[in-house]
Specification:
The complex is a heterodimer of chains A (573) and B (194). Chain A is mostly helical. Helix content of chain A is 64%, strand content 1%. In chain A, strands 1-2 form a two-stranded antiparallel sheet. In chain A, helix 3 runs parallel beside helix 5, helix 9 packs parallel to helix 11 and helix 12 runs parallel beside helix 15. The longest helix of chain A has 37 residues. In chain A, 55% of the residues are buried. Chain B has 194 residues and is mainly α. Chain B has a domain of 127 residues: Four Helix Bundle (Hemerythrin (Met), subunit A), CATH 1.20.120. Chain B has 5 helices and no strands. In chain B, helix 1 runs antiparallel to helix 4 and helix 4 packs antiparallel against helix 5. The relative contact order of chain B is 0.17. The chains are: A mainly alpha (573), B mainly alpha (194). Chains A and B meet through helix 1, helix 7, helix 8 and helix 9 of A and helix 1, helix 4 and helix 5 of B.
Chain lengths: 573, 194
Amino acid sequence: MSTATAEHGHEGQGHDAHGHHEPQNFFLKYFWSTDHKIIGMQYLFTGLAMAVVGGFAVYAFRMQLAFPGMSVPGWGRVTATDYNALVTTHGSVMIFWVAMPVLIAALGNYLIPLMIGCDDMVFPRLNRLSYQLFLLSIVVLFMSFYAQGGGFGGAWTSYPPLAAKAEYNLTPAGAPLWLLAVALEFAAFLLGGINFVTTVMNSRAPGMKMFDIPMVIWMIIIASIMFMASVGPLVAGAVMLFFDQTLGTGFFDPNQGGDPVLWQHLFWFFGHPEVYVVLLPAMGIVAEVVTTFARKKLFAYKTVLYTAVGTGVLGFFVWAHHQFIAGIDPRMANIFSVTTLLISIPVAEMCFVYIATLYGGSIRLTTPMLWALAFIGEFLIGGVTGIFLGASGADIYFHDTYFVIAHFHYTFFPIAFIAVFAAMTYWFPKMFGRYMNEAWGKVHFWGTIIPFNFIFIPLFLLGARGDHRRIYDYTHFPDLMKPGMQDLRILATLALVTLLAFQLVFVVNFFLSMFRGKKAEANPWKANTLEWVAPSPPPHGNFPEGLPNVYRGPYEFSHPDRQEDYWPQNVAS
Amino acid sequence: MEAVVTNPVPERRKPVVPSAVLGTLIFVIAEVMFFAGLISAHTISRAGSLPGLWPMPGQPTLPAEATALNTVLLLLSGAVLFFGYRLWKKQSPVAHWVTLAAWGLGAAFVALQGVEWVALLSQGLTLRSSPLGSFFYLIVGGHAVHALAALVAMFWAWMQMARGQLTSGFFFGVQTFWYFVVLMWPVIYARVYF
């Protein structure tokens, strides 16, 4: 626009430097590549592998809760120390090493250049470094499992003094290594986020205006900005905690003039926006899938966008609702109650928009569509139960009970698994050039959704009866062993085992379809966005017939003037 | 019937902000939030400390007056770097000497801070001696790490400039980061030293 821009403008197209010839060597192609699709796949497969770790951890400790003292097949007897480490591993792995890499890094890397119509990220080598740091963080995390004293057991929130003092947590090496792993992971996502925002701002296809950007891309961008704005204070807190653990400072130790609640503020200032960081991309996936399979324009594109921005802003002012009983000022609790209840409005608005999009559409119940619909339904349960916890009066009763656990799993499971399955089944033909098997996809869908509800509805009931979390063996607590309570725990655990078993269907379907599935054309779902212009799978450089131009928004389905019911963004007329 | 509407071929996009600058800016925002976290933690701890314990009795107070000189040097360095950039844009032959002067001022700041640390350490203010000491070394040390990294990048930019190979994107990125280091410091100085 200005002359200064033109002068420095060449940087925007600067990725020609890495050329358009694919490296032939297997190692260079799959491990040292700067291609955004390969890096996206690396993140995807690493994230899914970590889901196995997180899933195994939950299996082991849920078996202990249902059948205290039993020798768990595949683990052995779960000791109290094991239990703490398993819970911590489950929480931190599922959030930091599954939800974040899959939703933000894998989908962001894979989809952004394809959906905005360019050949690669703006900083491809930074992108490669991002994945390498992420991999390093996993190595450090695994080191912490085998360190002296075992893996860290202070929960994913890592509250001091438990997390700060080795004489309390009994993991002198596990705790700092865990913290280091989390910090490395954040550095990786910081590099990724810089790439995402810069690429979308500067490399969009000609003609793609702000309101022509597909919703999932907007959501990943807003989420990245939220992540980068919120992660600083947590890194600051992590450095302080690391010093407390290793150098003997007393930032969080009252004996040395520190303040343990300070960590909670620094942690949740990141931790709560983090919820929206993973929610927004999931919402974006659902927008893409719902419009494509309802064959209808997104009901209110700008409403979704503005509510997402509103969620992003408001998300920074709700964090202290995690601390209502941590000794914060009650006046502060009132303010945070209000903001917390307020934030349900934009999130509910998004769900309403998706339901309105479905209304009157020609709905096709393919596997991705089933997942997207399930997301809306299940996430709403999570959102509505959040109202109880956001109100500080009710939260005093519910705090640290299984009600909280059930609530956030009703939000996080739809985000990290239901929406991800929607995305993987929807973009699978693009990624691998073959269809996934629909029948097995539906078996997997029902085999996941039904047990999921059978895990967490019992936990809601338990929580409403005051069942306290962070207890390793309930047989020592007669108040929590009243008739029926243990039965609900056993029901939840059996449902969990069923859910985990049905994931095998997905894994088998995924890998069989990758090699044996029906060949997919470039645009198998008759969708409008630019990634469907590229061949399936897209080659290095994405668009062999030249980068596309954009003439309209991403959701022009069933246009009255058109014979076909879709109108791709790149078609001139 | 299909309505035939032929849209004109859109123009190629010209980035409003060059990618190198935008990338550095986003990074700087994250860094500002990092220091905001540290400084607010310091403020909260200080406000919550028992009366008479900040600073701890028997421990040195921070040399606010002496550090004013360092602050001026650093601010000057930022201004000189901007001047150097203006000269470089006009392709002035002295541009790289001005940039080197900015680098020298920045390096002097870091060196003087190091001298200050040695003095404070010898007077008994250590990382573990008191919350004031912990926060002082953490925040000022965090700033120093950023300053050192920026100095390395700036020196690299100077070498490229002297050879006439400096790209505008890289220089923009280096400048953005150095201005962040320069402008972060007065905030730290005001919050931590007084």
